[in-house]
Write a structure and sequence with these properties.
Structural class: alpha/beta
Distance between the termini: 45 Å
Helix content: 10-25%
Largest sheet: 6 strands, mixed
Order of helices and strands: EEEEEHHEEEEEEHEHH
Number of strands: 12
Strand order of the largest sheet: 3-7-6-11-5-12
Shape: globular
Number of helices: 5
Strand content: 15-25%
Length: 193
């Protein structure tokens, strides 16, 4: 048997074009998990402040809770996402896509609960309802296409779609139609396009 060449895009569940910053906040996926959902989120810490390392520190449990008054509201949270896309399009990865990141919380979508079990969480640096940069859409489109080459992706939703009433991100400023058009995926894979 001829050995297979290494995957040009992936090192296991790690995307080769993302800067790797390992988070301790993850666990195994259930044995029968079909990784078929991408969940788009938005985050900035403190809200509306961009460019710092606070999101990375939150996802790696190293955030100084006393550094800003807002952090008292999230003190002690242990969360993660698979990916974080900065305003300039820089891509960071915190959890292997083969593992279960802690991004969705209590959630349900396409008839399944616990969306963390079978989804990839992607955080965009921004605020819920705000707009996002062209570089972020470019990075998200490239990443989603690469994910679909490795996993059976068939659904893309916002945090607001999997946790309605509890979450509002990425919100009204996110351009679903642009993402759908750029990916060329069927419209029924998206909550709205």
């Amino acid at each position: 048997m001829t050995p297979q060449p290494p995957d040009a895009l992936w090192d296991g569940g790690w995307y080769r074009f993302a800067h790797r910053i390992a988070s301790p906040n993850f666990g195994p996926r259930p044995a029968q998990a079909a990784i078929d959902l991408v969940v788009v989120h938005s985050i900035s810490l403190p809200p509306g402040i961009y460019g710092g390392d606070e999101v990375e520190r939150l996802f790696t449990n190293t955030l100084d809770w006393d550094a800003h008054p807002y952090f008292q509201q999230i003190r002690g949270m242990q969360v993660s996402a698979h990916f974080f896309i900065r305003r300039d399009g820089a891509l960071l990865q915190f959890v292997s896509c083969d593992e279960r990141a802690w991004h969705a919380g209590t959630s349900s979508y396409r008839g399944r609960d616990n969306c963390n079990d079978d989804s990839i969480g992607i955080e965009l640096e921004g605020i819920e309802g705000g707009t996002f940069e062209p570089a972020q859409y470019e990075a998200l489109t490239s990443l989603a296409a690469a994910l679909a080459q490795r996993y059976p992706i068939r659904h893309v939703a916002g945090h607001e779609d999997i946790a309605p009433g509890r979450k509002q991100d990425p919100g009204a400023g996110f351009e679903w139609a642009l993402l759908q058009r750029d990916l060329g995926w069927p419209r029924d894979w998206f909550p709205r396009a």
